[in-house]
# Entry
Amino acid sequence: MRTTLPSLRAARGLSQASLAEALGVSRQTVNSIEVGKYDPSLPLAIRIARFFDSTVEDVFHLPEEDE
Amino acid sequence: MLWVMQTLTATTWFNRITLLVLSAGIVYLFVLGQTTAAVLWLAGVLYAAFSVVRSVSGRARDTTRVDAAQPFDERDAAAVRSGFALVGQVAFIAQLAIVIWHMGRPEEPGLLVEAGKVVVLAVALGVGNRAALRQA
# Structure
């Protein structure tokens, strides 16, 4: 899964650690989501989208949608 | 005291049972006079308990948390499930091989015990599969 999470996080001036703390997950999990190694569960994806006042579809994309 | 209660509450059922079994085992070894074995297991239990406490606090590395079977979030939990699934697969295949080895040497004792372990693993697999499907 591709994600706009790094740019959203940077726009808010947040570190991976501070975002992780706000979401209740580990910093490694935030990093894995950002680099596309880990696909979050639907509840976590919704929490991430809501944290950035966005939608799941805006934050996460299927790889073929970017081609 | 609150910190201790929070740690105990957050400890996974697997770690609670494992630490309970090992603690009882240490007492058993001490009672039987196997002091060296008891001290070795005590060191192992203390290290495991330390890993669990660090994992619960969230300060440990992800590998430490997963090795301690003490997930902090859903990614850790998925890794713990994958790790235990691999352990189960290896144990099941190895146990099948041991049973076949025993069947080829009927003069060697222990076939029934080893076959019983296969049954236990198969029952655990069946129970685990059904529990997972009911939750899905």
Summary: Chain A touches chain B through ten residues (CB under 8 Å). Chain A has a mean pLDDT of 94.
